Amino acid sequence: MTATDPALTALAQGWCALSLLHGRIEAHIERALQAKHDLSMREYSLLDVLSRQHDGEGGHLQMRQVADAVVLSQSATTRLVTRLEDRGLLARYLCPTDRRGIYTNVSEAGLTLLEEARPTNDTALREALDAAATNPELAPLVRVVESMNVPA
Question: I want to staple 101 with a disulfide (CB 3.0 to 4.6 A). Which of 49, 52, 77, 95 is the partner?
Answer without folding.
Answer: 95
